[in-house]
Design a protein that fits this description.
813 residues, alpha+beta, seven-stranded mixed beta sheet, 43% helix, globular
C-alpha cells in the first residue's frame, strides 16, 4: 500500500466497512449517508494510519516530543498530510479526532481518553495534533495500537450540548436528557457547567421546564423539541440508548458524535433477572407487546399459584412477579428465592445454575439450615411437591390429549374471510384466554416441578458418588432421551434430504440453485423436485421459527429459508444424517433401585417439558394466524392504520378494540409509543441482573471468573470459535461447519444450525434449559452461562472447550 490521500474516505461517500476504522469514524460516515448533518472531512483508515506510522517510524514508546520529531522528519508521511489538508482546502479551521478500535464500543466507550485537537490550519498544526494523539493513545495500553483518524471541518456553533437519549442514572424509556451551553459542546465534555439541563419526553412531546431566559435569545422551546425528536431518530436508527454531542450553527443542527451508552443504573425495588427469559425465550429479544401480554398473563398467575400450593410464598408478597425494563422482560428473583429458601436442601448456587442465573455472591450463597419452622414448612412443601410430581405425568398426558382434540377440530376450522369481525374476535379470545391459559399453565407447572426434581436428582448424585467413589454427573444421566420433540423436525428434514440425495435429477436441481433461488421458486408456486414432500414437511413442522416465543416473527410455513439452508448443506455433504456417537444412559445398569428411579423420573420430566413446550409453540402458531386475520380485518374496516399494529397491542386491548369497532386516540398513541420503544431499544445490551443498589453488587460473576461457565454437555474439543451475535433466518449455517459457535443464547428454533457444530458456548442458559437438552441429545460439547463470551472471543481465536468442567481456554496460534 502506498500513502495516497485519494484512498481516504470522504465522510458519507464510498463503501466504508466497519472493520476499516474506529466506531466513531464509521458512525460519522453512516450518519452522513442517512441524511444527518455532520462536519465535512476525511477518514484515515486503520491501514492508512499503520502505513503512515511506519513511514514515520513511530513507536508505542514515543512521547509527544519524540513522536513529533519523527513525524516532522518523514518526507513521505508529510506529503501525505499535506495532501489530506489540500483535499479539505477552503473548509476553514479543521479538527483532528482520534477514532480508536477500543473506543465507542457497545461494551465501553473510553470517552475522553483519546485526543481531539481543533485549530488546524497548516501541515505543522496537523503534525502536532497527530503527535499528541499518538502519544496519548500509546500511553493507554501496551497492546498494539489500532488507530484511525477523522480530519473534519471545525464548526463554530452558537450553542450546543450533550444529549442522553436515556438517563444513565434514572432511566425512563421516553425521556431524553439534554444539557445545553452557549458556544461549543466541547465545553461540557471538558467539564464546564451547562447553561440549561432539560428533560424532553418524546412520548408526550413535552419539556420538564421552560427554556431559561439567558439562552432564549438563541433557541426556542419549539426548536429544542425538534432537537429532541432528532435525537430520538438517532436512537431508533442504532436501536440502543445514545450519548450524543451536537451543536447548532446558523440554525442548522450538526451531529459531532453518537455513541452507545454502556452503563445504565436501573432503579429497582428488588432483584430482577432475565435468566430463562433470555435463554432463547421471551427475553432473548424485545418481545412485541402482544407476545409479552400473553406470556406475562400465564407466568404471573402460575407462579403465584405455585408458591401458594407448595407453601413457599415469599416473606413479603411481591408487588409484581414480572415486569419490563426498557421493553425487556424480567422476573422477580428475590421473591422467588425468598420462597424457595424455606425448604430444606435449598442451595442458592444450585438454584442459580439450574435457572441460568449468574451468581453474585461467594461460595454456595445462601443454604437453608435446619430450624423447627423450616422443618415444618419443608414437610408441607415436600408433601405438596411429591403429590404434584406423582400426578405430573398424568396431567401431561391430559394436556397433550387436550391439544390434539382442539387441533383436530376448531384449530383447523378457524373463521374465514366471510366471517363477521365479532367471530374473529371471539375465536382469538378463546385461543388465548381458554386454550393458551390451560396449556401454558400446565407447562409452567412442569417447569416448577422440574426445579425441585433437579435439586433432588443432584443431591442423589452427590450421595451416590460419595458412597461409591463414582463420578456420575447431571449432564451424563440426562442425555439420550428418546424421541425428543425438538429433534423431530431435524430428523424428518434429514430424511427428506436423504430422499433427494437418492434421486439424481432432484439432487442436481437442489444443488444447482441457491437458497435465494429456491425460496423464490417456492414463493411463486413454481414446480420443483420434491415440492409435495416439502409441502408435507411444512404442514407438520411449519410452526417452527428461529424466534419461537415471538408471535410477531414469521415461522417456517411463511419463510422456509432455514429449511432450505439445511437441505443444501446436507446435500453438499456438510454433515451426515446420523447422530453423533455418545455414551447413552442405560436404565438397566446396576444402580440402587431408589437412585435409579430418581434418575428415570428426572429424565421423564425433561422429556415432557420439551413435549409440552412444543405444543405451546404449535398453539402460538395458530394464535399468530388468528392475529394476522384479525389485524387485516381491522385495517380493512379502518380501525387500525396497519394490520401489523395488532402486535403492538396487548391481547386485552386487541379484544376490546375488536369488540368496540372503533379506535380512540389513546389506542393510536399507545401503538406509536410502542413502535418507537421497539425501534429505540431493539439492540440494547440488557443487563442479566438488576439490583436495588447496583453499587452493592458490582461483581456479578463471582465463581465464574475468566472464561468459565456451566458445563451442560460433556466432551473436550478444540477448534476455531465463531462469534454470532444473532442467529436469524438470514444466517448462513455453513459458516459454522466444524467450528465452535459462540452466541448469546440458543433456542429450539435454532436447531437446524446445530447440524455440524463442533462445540457450543453461550452467555446464557442453565442445565435445565431447552438448548442444554438438545446439546445432550446431539452430543455437542457445550458450556452455557459464560459471561461476556461474545466479546471475549470476538476475534475468533482457536480455543479448547471442556464441557464437563465448564472451562474455555484460548490457545496460542
Amino acid at each position: 500500500m502506498t500513502l495516497d490521500s485519494r484512498a481516504c474516505f470522504r465522510i458519507g461517500e464510498g463503501q466504508l466497512n466497519p472493520s476499516q476504522c474506529g466506531a466513531k469514524a464509521f458512525r460519522q460516515h453512516e450518519l452522513k449517508r442517512l441524511g444527518f448533518l455532520v462536519p465535512d472531512g476525511l477518514i484515515l483508515t486503520y491501514d492508512q494510519v499503520d502505513h503512515w506510522a511506519a513511514a514515520c517510524q513511530l513507536s508505542q514508546r514515543d512521547t509527544y516530543a519524540t513522536a513529533l520529531e519523527r513525524i516532522r522528519g518523514a518526507d513521505q508521511g508529510n506529503d501525505f498530510l499535506a495532501a489530506v489538508l489540500s483535499a479539505l482546502l477552503g473548509k476553514g479551521p479543521l479538527i483532528l479526532r482520534t477514532a480508536a478500535a477500543t473506543e465507542d464500543r457497545p461494551d465501553g466507550t473510553m470517552a475522553g481518553q483519546f485526543v481531539s485537537r481543533p485549530g488546524i490550519h497548516t501541515t505543522e498544526d496537523l503534525q502536532e495534533a497527530l503527535a499528541a494523539a499518538w502519544a496519548a493513545a500509546a500511553s493507554l495500553s501496551s497492546a498494539p495500537l489500532r488507530l484511525s483518524f477523522l480530519v473534519q471541518e471545525y464548526i463554530q456553533t452558537e450553542y450546543g450540548g450533550v444529549a442522553f437519549t436515556v438517563s444513565p442514572t434514572a432511566p425512563k424509556a421516553s425521556e431524553i436528557i439534554m444539557e445545553v451551553i452557549e458556544g461549543s459542546c466541547a465545553q461540557l465534555t471538558g467539564g464546564a457547567s451547562p447553561d440549561a439541563r432539560l428533560t424532553f419526553d418524546w412520548r408526550n412531546q413535552t419539556l420538564d421546564k421552560p427554556f431559561p431566559g439567558q439562552l432564549s435569545r438563541l433557541v426556542s422551546n419549539a426548536q429544542i423539541t425538534q432537537l429532541g425528536n432528532t435525537f430520538l431518530d438517532l436512537q431508533k436508527h442504532f436501536g440502543c440508548p445514545q450519548d450524543i454531542e451536537w451543536g447548532v450553527c446558523e440554525g442548522v443542527l450538526y451531529i459531532f458524535q453518537s455513541r452507545p451508552i454502556t452503563r445504565i443504573a436501573f432503579s429497582a425495588d428488588t432483584i430482577w433477572t432475565n435468566a430463562n427469559f433470555r435463554d432463547g425465550g421471551i427475553g432473548a429479544d424485545m418481545p412485541s407487546p402482544l407476545m409479552w401480554s400473553l406470556y406475562q398473563m400465564t407466568f404471573d398467575q402460575s407462579i403465584d399459584a405455585f408458591s401458594k400450593r407448595y407453601h413457599i410464598t415469599p416473606d413479603t408478597p411481591p408487588k409484581a412477579w414480572s415486569r419490563t425494563f426498557l421493553g425487556y422482560p424480567y422476573w422477580n428473583l428475590a421473591a422467588t428465592k425468598s420462597g424457595a429458601r424455606k425448604v430444606l436442601g435449598y442451595v442458592e448456587r444450585q438454584f442459580d445454575q439450574g435457572q441460568g442465573v449468574t451468581p453474585y455472591y461467594e461460595g454456595d450463597g445462601e443454604v437453608s439450615k435446619l430450624t423447627p419452622r423450616r422443618l415444618f414448612t419443608s414437610l408441607k412443601a415436600l408433601l405438596a411437591i411429591r403429590k404434584s410430581i406423582k400426578s405430573r405425568f398424568k396431567v401431561c398426558q391430559q394436556t397433550k390429549a387436550y391439544f390434539e382434540k382442539i387441533a383436530s377440530t376448531e384449530l383447523v376450522t378457524p373463521p374465514d374471510e366471510q366471517s363477521a369481525t365479532a367471530d374473529l374476535v371471539l375465536y382469538f379470545e378463546r385461543l388465548v384466554t381458554q386454550h393458551l391459559m390451560y396449556i401454558y399453565t400446565r407447562y409452567w407447572e412442569i417447569i416448577y416441578d422440574n426445579t425441585f426434581v433437579s435439586t433432588f436428582t443432584q443431591q442423589a448424585l452427590d450421595r451416590y458418588n460419595r458412597k461409591t467413589g463414582s463420578n456420575l454427573e447431571f449432564p451424563a444421566v440426562t442425555a439420550n432421551l428418546e424421541n425428543v420433540a425438538h429433534l423431530r423436525p431435524l430428523e424428518a428434514l434429514l430424511e427428506l434430504g436423504q430422499d433427494i440425495l437418492s434421486d439424481d435429477a432432484a439432487h442436481a436441481w437442489w444443488t444447482a440453485h441457491s437458497v435465494e433461488e429456491i425460496f423464490e421458486t417456492w414463493y411463486n408456486g413454481s414446480p420443483f423436485p420434491f415440492q409435495d414432500q416439502l409441502k408435507d414437511y411444512l404442514t407438520d413442522y411449519g410452526y417452527k421459527s428461529s424466534r419461537e416465543l415471538e408471535i410477531q416473527a414469521p415461522n417456517w410455513s411463511e419463510d422456509p429459508t432455514p429449511v432450505f439452508h439445511v437441505l443444501r448443506q446436507f446435500l453438499a455433504g456438510a454433515f451426515s444424517a446420523s447422530a453423533k456417537p455418545h455414551t447413552p444412559w442405560h436404565s438397566d445398569r446396576s444402580l440402587p433401585h431408589k437412585f435409579k428411579r430418581q434418575i428415570e423420573q428426572q429424565r421423564k420430566l425433561l422429556w415432557w417439558k420439551e413435549e409440552i413446550r412444543d405444543i405451546t409453540t404449535q398453539l402460538f402458531h395458530y394464535i399468530r394466524k388468528s392475529v394476522i386475520a384479525l389485524g387485516q380485518r381491522l385495517e380493512k374496516e379502518g380501525i387500525l392504520p396497519n394490520a401489523e399494529d395488532a402486535f403492538f397491542l396487548t391481547h386485552q386491548e386487541l379484544i376490546c378494540l375488536g369488540k368496540m369497532g372503533t379506535v380512540t386516540a389513546d389506542y393510536r398513541e399507545r401503538i406509536v409509543y410502542r413502535r418507537n420503544l421497539q425501534a429505540s431499544f431493539r439492540n440494547f445490551q440488557k443487563p442479566d441482573l438488576i439490583f436495588p443498589d447496583p453499587a452493592e453488587h458490582r461483581t456479578t460473576t463471582v465463581g465464574y471468573s475468566g472464561l468459565k461457565g456451566i458445563g451442560v454437555c460433556h466432551g473436550k474439543v478444540e477448534g476455531i470459535a465463531v462469534t454470532v451475535n444473532e442467529i436469524n433466518d438470514f444466517f448462513d449455517p455453513s459458516t459454522l461447519d466444524g467450528r465452535i459457535l459462540v452466541t448469546p443464547y440458543i433456542n429450539p428454533g435454532h436447531l437446524p444450525y446445530f447440524s455440524n457444530l463442533k462445540g457450543l458456548i453461550t452467555e446464557n442458559g442453565g442445565l435445565l434449559s431447552h438448548a442444554a437438552i438438545i446439546c445432550r441429545e446431539l452430543n455437542i460439547p457445550a458450556i452455557f452461562g459464560v459471561p461476556d463470551a461474545t466479546h471475549k472471543l470476538r476475534d475468533n481465536p482457536r480455543i479448547r472447550l471442556n464441557g464437563k468442567t465448564g472451562e474455555v481456554a484460548i490457545l496460542a496460534e
